[in-house]
Amino acid sequence: MLLVTRADLFSAGRQALAATPGIRLNPTVADIPGSDLNVVLGMMATLGEEVSSRGATALRGVFAELARGSQLDQVIYDRSGLLRFGAAPATVDLALIRPAPSSATPGTFSAGSLVQTGDGVQFALVQDAVFGDYDTEVDVEAQAVVAGAAGNVPNSNPTTGAGIVSFVTTPFDTTLTVQNGAPAAGGTDAESDISFLGRYRGYFATLARGTLGAIEYAALQVPGVAVATATEITDPTGGYPVAAISLVVGDLNGNATSSMLTAVSNSLLGYRAAGIPVYVTGGVVAYVSVAWSLAFAQGIDESLAISRVRAVTVAVAQFLPPGPANGILYRANLIAAAQQVPGVVIADSSLESPAGDVVPTSAQQMLRVLPTSVTFD
Predict the structure, then answer these.
(1) What mean pLDDT is predicted for residues 155-184?
(2) pLDDT value, residue 93
(3) Burial of 182 by CB count in 10 Å (0-12 exposed, 13-18 middle, 19+ buried)?
(4) Cα–Cα distance measured from residue 236 to residue 241, given in angstroms and rounded to the nearest whole number
(5) Looking at the chain, which runs of residues are DSSP E strands?
């Protein structure tokens, strides 16, 4: 939208003066800095520019496609009742383990107790971990203390020290150790304007409940869920639906925890058809390695260009759904994404690996690319 500027308004005022019959003011005086006429016209032009700007901003807020920030929140809420997601904390399934006790040693590691990763990301237990007389392992859920994607820590690895490895709160039994066998999942930053707008666009098509689209949409209303794919379960002999749905969900990295799956199941109550079960499972993530051999235009900052190619490579796979039908990582898409980076010369031979399209091997498998898995010759 083209706005009326201060210069436009000042010029219009000066022309109005010149076109007024019998006026005793000399329009040329308006161009003398500091003259009364110059000051008056300048002030009026400034006020007019501000009114024009505010009017354009208000008009932009009427349209969801143009509104941003609080205006987008307002227009989407007025039309659909949807609210923007705030930052959500990651959740994780923990295992508290101790050597086989030689005597009766019951005890409780209380809800709210803290554990942490090697680099200090802390998680709090969401329920008590109760050890009986001879229990050696208790599984328990925990939630990141700070909301955001930084809580999506990897699974514990004794060799590298990754994952949750130590206690912040001293446990009742000093022989206890802690680990997470699967990555933490569901940690997200506050929803961006683009993501919120995309969720709003999908809202009206899912007002009819009980459809596959509505079931997927219900899962995406759970904070932390970024990918949801619903399919009908069919009779393997005749291919007819058997009145059940399979729903595979995952966060941005394709991972899911037990608390996320429970939240999705609860969200489905208002979306699935009554009496039709939906079996909710987490995706199985497979990481793909990508190797580039790049050439650059003259005068380009090669380090910056490489970082951008790495970012778009990761982004191509970030929202791939599970399964071999729609979750294929196409070699052509990787090349097309890299070609959008300014100053990088991309040919088919620039992508050394993968040599062809990568197809998921099961209905639950999701393909992802880690930044560390993108290499350059």
Answers:
(1) 91
(2) 95
(3) middle
(4) 9
(5) 91-97, 107-109, 114-117, 122-125, 129-131, 137-144, 164-167, 177-179, 227-234, 241-250, 278-282, 284-287, 290-292, 295-296, 344-345, 351-353, 365-368, 374-376
Average pLDDT, the chain: 90
Q: Give the whole-angstrom CA distance, residue 318 versus residue 327.
A: 11
Domain locations along the chain: 6-60, 91-179, 202-282, 286-376
Give the percent of the chain with pLDDT over 70.
Answer: 98
Q: Is the pTM of this model over 0.70?
A: no
pLDDT over 90 percentage in the chain: 63
Q: Closest Cα partner for 197 from 60, 62, 67?
A: 67
| CA–CA distances in Å: residue 71 to residues 57, 62, 76, 81, 376 | 9, 8, 9, 14, 43
| pLDDT confidence band for 104 (50 / 70 / 90) | low
The single residue listed with the structure tokens 């901003």 is 57
CA atoms within 13 A on the CB side of 279: 10
Query: What is the CATH number that goes with domain 202-282?
Result: 3.30.300.30
pLDDT at 113: 96
Which residues 6+ apart lie within 8 Å of 260 measured at CB?
91, 185, 186, 222, 224, 225, 249, 251, 282
CA distance 113 to 107: 14
End-to-end Cα distance, the chain: 46
pLDDT at 140: 96
Tell me which DSSP letter residue 358 carries.
B
Cross-strand pairs, 375: 291
* Alpha carbon distance 371, 367 (integer Å): 14
Tokens of 65: 């496609």
Tell me the two tokens of residue 98.
Answer: 């101790």
Residue with the bigger pLDDT between 257 and 60: it is 257
- Which residue is associated with the tokens 């990754």? 162
| Average confidence (pLDDT) over 64-80 | 92
Over range 191-218, report the average pLDDT.
Answer: 90
Return the structure tokens found at 118.
């090697």
